[in-house]
Amino acid sequence: MTDSAQRKGKVCLAYSGGLDTSCILKWLINQGYDVICFLADCGQEEDFKAAEQKALKVGAKKVYIEDIKKEFVEEFCWPAIQCNANYETLYLLGTSLARPPIARAQIKVAQKEGCFAVSHGCTGKGNDQVRFELAFKALQPDIKVIAPWRDSAFLEKFAGGRNSLLEYASQQGIPVTSTKSKPWSMDENLAHCSYEAGILEDPNTTPPADMWKLTVDPKEAPDKEELFTVEFKKGIPSKLQYTEDGKSKTVTDAVDILTAANTIGRRNGVGRIDIVENRFIGIKSRGCYETPGLTLLHLSHLDLEGLTMDREVRSLRDAHVTLPYGRALYNGHYFSPQREYLHASIVASQKDVNGTVRCAAYKGSFRVLGRWSETSRLYDMEESSMDDIGDFDPAAAGGFIDVEAIRLKKYGRGKMESGEGLV
User: What is the C-alpha separation between 69 and 317, in angstroms, rounded?
Assistant: First the structure.
């Protein structure tokens, strides 16, 4: 071990209490760094006290456990709901959404403690190294980043993977939980839980039933629909009403809304997906995700937009905001000028998205039972009725069709003249 007179300075390590980051903690200490451990509470089911005690036993100078659930939901999950953010259609970005607030909280701790560097346990093949480090560089441009899984000496020492880590832990007196390692990696927060690597690297391997941590198997979910309503103000969930133990419940706090939505989604098996995605660094990756509450809120918001949003505004938002915003989150560009611009566009697009959606969850599925808005005037029952003409003149539709047909008639004639008739 390096003598204290030769210490290299303070490093703030993103610590989980697991085998990897515990070995990284000891390795950094043995390299001559004074290590401040940082844990973010973003809603994952974790024994933070045990992790704190373990870090101190291994040799951390201090341990910070920062509760970031409120900012995670209000600043990151809600804008994603507002613009229907996704990556490659199905992934609702649960991991990507959590990385910016975690990075920001870690930098705050590093600055408070006077750390010259931050460190993490991300692998050299994944997206998270990019997300964290781009955030670090934007938040504190002069910060140094120590990434052990890209360090040649560290990689050589732990070339045997988990076995090498276990051997090092034994040599260094690092407490190791005796439970058998699961053949996949997991990451959890209030929005979702992700599973990848190990046996899941074969895209044709069906995930075992006991892998899914959050949701009940849809086949085992209750045989009766669970009803609930979600109210939105400017596209943001503002109230959720549901029934618990036979009693009507209403929640309005942001964290409480997502937590209640999770409860409904989990017990009804909603929000499981299994996909192969394109990582930012250019590698394809198989990932399984459980996103119960966010899925329910995402789908109910999407429905309300049909009632309350102007057609052209929605079209522009879908094409020029939703997809770029999802890419910005996925690729680690949250703290960027384009994300700021996109966020301003999200707010502008959602000013009229006010109303309530009546919903049902059942055996892994979601459906809308009805929706209404007290403020939107875009939908007119009389105007839409097939039984009541109202102020709409059906004869006007003929002229509309004639104008729309000008271009298509020319297209059809051109096809006929070239011998490529459409019939």
Answer: 28
Q: Among this protein's residues, is 142 annotated catalytic?
A: no
Q: Are 85 and 93 in contact (CB under 8 A)?
A: yes
Beta bridge pairs of residue 289: 194, 273
Give residue for tokens 């899925």: 295
Catalytic residue, candidates 16, 22, 34, 99: 99
Both tokens of 104, joined, read 């920001």
* Residue from 41, 67, 151, 185 carrying the catalytic annotation: 185
* Residue 399 exposure: Cα atoms within 13 Å on the Cβ side: 4
The tokens of 285 are what?
């990756």
Q: Give Cβ neighbours of residue 332 (< 8 Å, ≥ 6 apart).
A: 96, 99, 127, 130, 131, 132, 133, 134, 135, 280
Mean pLDDT estimate for the chain: 94
Query: Which of these ranges, 22-31, 128-137, 381-390, has the smallest mean pLDDT?
Result: 381-390
Confidence class for position 182, pLDDT limits 50, 70, 90: confident
Closest CA to 369 of 228, 222, 223, 218: 228
What's the chain's Rg over C-alpha atoms? 26
Residue scoring higher pLDDT (384 or 36): 36
Is 185 an annotated catalytic residue? yes
Partners of 288 in the beta sheet? 195, 274
CB 277 within 8 A of CB 87: yes
| Residue 128 known to be catalytic | yes
* Catalytic annotation present for 345: no
